[in-house]
Amino acid sequence: MKKWNLKKLVQLANNQRGFTLTEMLIVIALIALIGTIVTVNVTSKFARSKVDATKIQMKQLGVVLDDFRRECGFYPLTEQGLDALVKKPMPIGTRDCKNYDPEGYIKGGKVPQDGFGRDFLYESDGNKYVIRSLGNDGQAGGNDNDRDLSSDDI
């Protein structure tokens, strides 16, 4: 068994070099920079996916609205809203859907929301319709992912 003397142990300990504070700060700064870049990229892709999901929902609602029109002869009026796709709407004036599907046009009993978790805005005079989403910020106008989306633009 090898014997160590105290002097050699102290010399070995003194020869071991650790990281300086400056080196540690540089490493932490690099990790923070990489984390920021990754977070920005992931966040922007997540926001874009919400926009894409909203566009897909609008297209699907358009197909269902066309089916409603084929059966009823008109699109649901603004006052009837998209809820007319779930349960038979009350007649407004001469607009009454006599051939309404008893099970509704959207299964599950709920109108889907946009990709941002909000209800779609719907306007119709019975002959044409517009479905809108206020985008990520939930306010009219905006740019990029905050811009409003409309079925007319898709």
Secondary-structure blueprint:
Layout: H1 6-15, H2 21-72, E1 121-124, E2 129-133, E3 149-150
Antiparallel strand pairs: 1-2, 2-3
Q: Provide a count of the helices.
A: 2
Examine the secondary-structure arrangement and name the CATH architecture.
Answer: 2-Layer Sandwich
Low-confidence stretches: none
- DSSP strand count: 3
How many domain units?
A: 1
Distance between the termini: 82 Å
CATH class: Alpha Beta
- Rg is 31 Å
What percent of residues adopt helix (DSSP H or I)? 40-55%
Largest sheet: 3 strands, antiparallel
Shape: rod-shaped
Characterize the quaternary organization of these chains. single chain
Instruction: Write the H/E string, N to C.
Output: HHEEE
Beta-strand fraction estimate: 5-15%
Protein structure class: mainly alpha
The CATH superfamily is identified as: Glycoprotein, Type 4 Pilin
| Strands ordered across the widest β-sheet | 1-2-3
Could you characterize what this model shows?
By secondary structure, the protein is mainly α. The chain has one domain: Glycoprotein, Type 4 Pilin, CATH 3.30.700. Helix content is 40%, strand content 7%. Strands 1-2-3 form a three-stranded antiparallel beta sheet, covered by helices on one side. Strand 1 (121-124) and strand 2 (129-133) form a beta hairpin. The longest helix is centred in the first third of the chain and has 52 residues, at 21-72. The protein is rod-shaped. The mean pLDDT is 89.
